[in-house]
Write a structure and sequence with these properties.
alpha/beta, eight-stranded parallel β-barrel, 24% strand
Length: 406
């Protein structure tokens, strides 16, 4: 944890039993590092990771645009001061009503041929013309194999057949979007994926002319397990530089876009809860915590996957599950004797388990447990209405040291 965080957590825990703490210093350290290593790239923040208002203000103040996955997220981005040309709305199943509400307030990314036709119908009726992007499901995979069926995007062959024969008078396709995977830590795999997307963009240019943008999606991961190595951004930059420079030379007017996903905010967040009770049952020690499954669901989901999967290391299904050990459990008591404990929540369900048979310093009622990697896909995913419990607060520690929220 960054300097001073434990003291701040301890102070906040004096008045709260469970809360999130987001450290802006981590955000403001990560974004410049990204931009310095990839000066030829425009970065978007995926709002679905964490739509907390203070998070959005901080991220957008650093020049990132928005990847929006709903009309609500388009409106959040607009309300945070972003102009429409820096908001990209990509999601399957957009309705006519959705299109009507956002037209002119963002760049629409069509997810199907039928959606392009719906956009055309709306534009014709409103007597408007619009430039859009399309999401393509390419004939390649993230790891280099051939393409696969997907709920997302338009299959590459179908997309280019449409582009060659497009007859929508009010709609012009001027950009492409590809996204195949999140949470990749291997720089070589990511660089090879970027190269394939840029080759696809060249194919688009040969049919439609120079694109306004090519959105290469996300993929940048953060370490979770103790055995994980952090993504080597310097290595990724070196491996990607020739492809990026070559494309930039051929298409100087095209925006090359990467969505940051959890990379910017995942490690800025901590989930803090307290021991409400402790008990021993058949020689097993349980620490009962406040608001676990209903406060921060992903550690509980990891236990369920671990319990029911036949695999030793089951593959991730983002954003619900990354790995069985994607979070660390910390305490404020560093000098107490260690003991083996199982961490459970105070809900009336046996699924409310966040860690089993782990070693922690001896904790009593009122002591604090801290969970890491809680800055993305955490509060926003958790079922806080379940059991009508008191909701955990979300606190934002600004760069100046001010606590916002709570």
């Amino acid at each position: 944890m960054m300097a001073g965080i434990k003291e701040i957590i301890s102070s906040c825990a004096d008045r709260m039993d469970s809360f999130y703490l987001y450290d802006e210093r981590r955000i403001l350290g990560t974004i410049p590092y990204l931009k310095n290593n990839f000066p030829q790239v425009d970065f978007l923040y995926s709002i679905k990771c964490n739509p907390n208002a203070s998070i959005l203000r901080s991220v957008f103040s650093q020049g990132l645009g928005a990847d929006a996955a709903s009309v609500g997220e388009v409106e959040l981005a607009s309300g945070s001061g972003l102009p429409g040309n820096r908001i990209y709305f990509s999601a399957p199943g957009k309705s006519t009503k959705d299109i009507e509400r956002v037209l002119g307030h963002c760049t629409l990314i069509a997810d199907s041929i039928d959606e392009i036709r719906r956009i055309q119908d709306v534009c014709s009726r409103m007597e408007k013309s619009v430039c859009i992007g399309i999401r393509i499901n390419p004939d390649f995979s993230f790891s280099g194999d051939s393409g696969a069926a997907s709920k997302f995007g338009i299959d590459e062959e179908e997309a280019f057949a449409f582009l060659r024969n497009a007859s929508c008078r009010n709609v012009k396709v001027t950009g492409i979007h590809v996204h195949l995977k999140s949470q990749e830590l291997n720089a070589g795999v990511l660089a090879a994926y970027y190269d394939k997307v840029l080759c696809l963009a060249e194919k688009f240019a040969s049919v439609c002319g120079e694109p306004d943008f090519v959105n290469m999606g996300s993929g940048m991961g953060i370490p979770g397990a103790a055995s994980d190595s952090a993504l080597d951004l310097l290595q990724l930059q070196k491996l990607s530089q020739s492809s990026l420079n070559r494309f930039r030379e051929r298409h100087p007017g095209t925006k090359i876009i990467i969505e940051t996903g959890r990379y910017v905010v995942g490690e800025c967040g901590y989930y803090v809860t307290k021991v409400m009770d402790r008990k021993v049952s058949h020689e097993k020690t349980y620490l009962i915590l406040k608001n676990t499954l209903n406060g921060f669901i992903r550690p509980s989901l990891a236990r369920l996957v671990e319990k029911y999967s036949p695999e030793l290391n089951p593959s991730g299904t983002e954003p619900l599950f990354t790995s069985v050990d994607a979070f660390r459990f910390l305490t404020l008591k560093e000098d107490a004797a260690a003991e083996k404990v199982t961490l459970v929540g105070n809900l009336c369900t046996a699924a409310d388990i966040v860690a089993e048979d782990i070693m922690l310093p001896h904790l009593e009622c009122g002591d604090v447990v801290i969970m890491t990697n809680a800055g993305s896909y955490a509060a926003v995913l958790s079922p806080m209405q379940f059991s009508s419990q008191e909701r955990p607060s979300e606190l934002f520690l600004s760069e100046s040291g001010q606590i916002i929220g709570g």
